[in-house]
Amino acid sequence: MTRAAEAPSRRPAAAGRRWGPRHVVAAGLGVLGILAIVGLRAVTAESGDAPLPDAAQDLITLATSVIIESLPFIVLGIALSILVQVWIPETWLMRILPRNPWGRRAVISLFGMFLPVCECGNVPLARGLVRKGFTVPESMVFLLAAPILNPVTILTTHAAFGFDDGILVARLLGGFLIANVLGWLFSQHPDPESLLTDRFAEECRVDEAAVTRSRGGQTLDLFVRETSILMPALVIGAVVAGAIQVAVPRDVLVALGSDPLFSVLAMMVLAFVISVCSNVDAFFILPFASTFLPGSIVTFLVFGPIIDIKMLALMRTTYSTRTLVQVTVVVGLLSAALGLVVNYVA
Amino acid sequence: MWRSVQTWRGIALIGTISAVALWLAASGQLVLYIHPRYVLFTVAMAIVALVLVVAAIAARAVVQRRDALQRPPGSVDLLAAHDGQGHDHAEPHDHDPLPRRRERALGLTAAGVAGLFVLGMVLLPPATLSTATAEQREINATAADVQALDEAQNADAAAVARFTVREWAGILRQTSDLGFFADKPVTDLVGFVSPDADDPENVFYVSRFSITCCAVDAQPLGVPVHLPGWQEQFPVDSWVSVSGEFVSNPSAQSLQPIVIEPSGVEAVEQPREPYLF
């Protein structure tokens, strides 16, 4: 493997290269490829409706809709992640953080206020933070809190519910508390790195010995790597979410809506299945507000942004299955408890 | 093959999806999938993605070519392991075991499934949700638009004539007082045909999906129409425009207290924005 060892020394030279004719040709081919896809799409659209059964067609429409809706957030998330990893000096982020672990996690759970990306975009960002030297539990705090404690989500939740029934306040406090409790729980883990998938942990170790490449080169490398890992997960998560929606009648869930306990559970199942972004889930659930108790709505609004089919598929790129099962159980129990408290108290 | 799949799958997927999204936006069909307020954001981010895709292709293609040229023949496999910094094993380094066979198979399958679906996004014509989903989600389960009734009370004839399925469905959910509907005829109410589960022979719904974010959260809304033998003229899922008056439901099986007694039902083209936002 001597060749591998000498590779890094050659990289900077390659990275420092100027753009030559070969780049232009490759870029031209890329543009042609994109135009070919658009052309093909335009031609096939004329071919009339596909001879598919309604359910299959709806599955495709639903999954496509999840993908198209998540696409801009994923792109924004990857862009911010690259910004944090490549363009922002390391000291900036570390300097503003308190030393004490509870304080650190509390501040990290408020990062979403400055990085208003919905949860699918937060996965690449959390990956970037881990590479940047955040501990694994800290990355989870960010992942869990940011989709709820961010300006867009707060605005839309307020637009949907105002301050009625304490839904907004319970959502914000609940999200903050659950993220911090979970972060504390995992910080007790003897070997936090084992919470990651082997592959991602390896990637992080590699990054510590990162080769000095030009920032432009690093940006493109990260873009290729992040899309390569996140895009298949997103598509598969969307297809599974679409399939389950076509298969499970929604009125089964709604029928459970008025019982204080079952309505909480029904809302968790609904949130899990529907996989809708935290920025807009308040509007989605608003029509159900008349059938369901307020605590159950809170459960939906706290559980849904963190745990759903699409998110599990995305988070699996980073955390091990075992970790995700633990996270799901803990978040599920905490958000159910929160919902029950609101149901019985309010 | 594993290496190039790992390197290129993300670029290929995000590039194709972004290209499709841009085409959908250009042809005005992006609203089949998402709420109009996200169209601009989606278009902007798809363009950013495509710019990065092209730049990455350019940078990557040259790196690969250079590496291939600089290395002696016999070591091609090893080289392949090193040249894609974008893949999971990142930059070249020593402690880089080839991924285990099972993991590799899983990765290939995932890329294959995702690739197949995205190919479907390119080849299959865009479509709206159908009655299959409307039945799955129970029509009007959530049509509680509290304002609709107040507004309808004070609305003049012109405003009533502009009511969509959303307004009527909201009103019907809150009142079954026929007097309320006395001077409020239905004019050219557009929607797709969806059978009433309780009396599919005689009653159908003029239906629309209402969307708050994307097609995933589509809620079916519908206004019942009493028209015995409607199936012979209007297939399920076809679009119609209905005019008529509200009357108490003549059908014994249907659970709807009030239905439209149509004075005219016409088949129409699917509107450009099939969903209500």
UniProtKB/TrEMBL annotation, chain A:
<feature type="transmembrane region" description="Helical">
    <location>
        <begin position="139"/>
        <end position="161"/>
    </location>
</feature>
<dbReference type="InterPro" id="IPR052923">
    <property type="entry name" value="UPF0718"/>
</dbReference>
<dbReference type="InterPro" id="IPR005524">
    <property type="entry name" value="DUF318"/>
</dbReference>
<feature type="transmembrane region" description="Helical">
    <location>
        <begin position="282"/>
        <end position="303"/>
    </location>
</feature>
<feature type="transmembrane region" description="Helical">
    <location>
        <begin position="60"/>
        <end position="86"/>
    </location>
</feature>
<protein>
    <submittedName>
        <fullName>Permease</fullName>
    </submittedName>
</protein>
<feature type="transmembrane region" description="Helical">
    <location>
        <begin position="260"/>
        <end position="276"/>
    </location>
</feature>
<feature type="transmembrane region" description="Helical">
    <location>
        <begin position="324"/>
        <end position="345"/>
    </location>
</feature>
<keyword id="KW-0472">Membrane</keyword>
<keyword id="KW-1133">Transmembrane helix</keyword>
<feature type="transmembrane region" description="Helical">
    <location>
        <begin position="229"/>
        <end position="248"/>
    </location>
</feature>
<feature type="transmembrane region" description="Helical">
    <location>
        <begin position="107"/>
        <end position="127"/>
    </location>
</feature>
<feature type="transmembrane region" description="Helical">
    <location>
        <begin position="21"/>
        <end position="40"/>
    </location>
</feature>
<keyword id="KW-0812">Transmembrane</keyword>
<dbReference type="GO" id="GO:0005886">
    <property type="term" value="C:plasma membrane"/>
</dbReference>
<dbReference type="Pfam" id="PF03773">
    <property type="entry name" value="ArsP_1"/>
</dbReference>
<comment type="similarity">
    <text>Belongs to the UPF0718 family.</text>
</comment>
<keyword id="KW-1003">Cell membrane</keyword>
<feature type="transmembrane region" description="Helical">
    <location>
        <begin position="168"/>
        <end position="186"/>
    </location>
</feature>
UniProtKB/TrEMBL annotation, chain B:
<protein>
    <submittedName>
        <fullName>TIGR03943 family protein</fullName>
    </submittedName>
</protein>
<keyword id="KW-1133">Transmembrane helix</keyword>
<feature type="transmembrane region" description="Helical">
    <location>
        <begin position="12"/>
        <end position="32"/>
    </location>
</feature>
<feature type="domain" description="DUF1980">
    <location>
        <begin position="10"/>
        <end position="139"/>
    </location>
</feature>
<dbReference type="Pfam" id="PF21537">
    <property type="entry name" value="DUF1980_C"/>
</dbReference>
<dbReference type="InterPro" id="IPR052955">
    <property type="entry name" value="UPF0703_membrane_permease"/>
</dbReference>
<dbReference type="InterPro" id="IPR015402">
    <property type="entry name" value="DUF1980"/>
</dbReference>
<feature type="transmembrane region" description="Helical">
    <location>
        <begin position="38"/>
        <end position="63"/>
    </location>
</feature>
<keyword id="KW-0812">Transmembrane</keyword>
<feature type="region of interest" description="Disordered">
    <location>
        <begin position="80"/>
        <end position="99"/>
    </location>
</feature>
<feature type="domain" description="DUF1980">
    <location>
        <begin position="177"/>
        <end position="277"/>
    </location>
</feature>
<feature type="transmembrane region" description="Helical">
    <location>
        <begin position="105"/>
        <end position="124"/>
    </location>
</feature>
<feature type="compositionally biased region" description="Basic and acidic residues">
    <location>
        <begin position="84"/>
        <end position="99"/>
    </location>
</feature>
<dbReference type="InterPro" id="IPR048493">
    <property type="entry name" value="DUF1980_N"/>
</dbReference>
<dbReference type="InterPro" id="IPR048447">
    <property type="entry name" value="DUF1980_C"/>
</dbReference>
<keyword id="KW-0472">Membrane</keyword>
<dbReference type="Pfam" id="PF09323">
    <property type="entry name" value="DUF1980"/>
</dbReference>
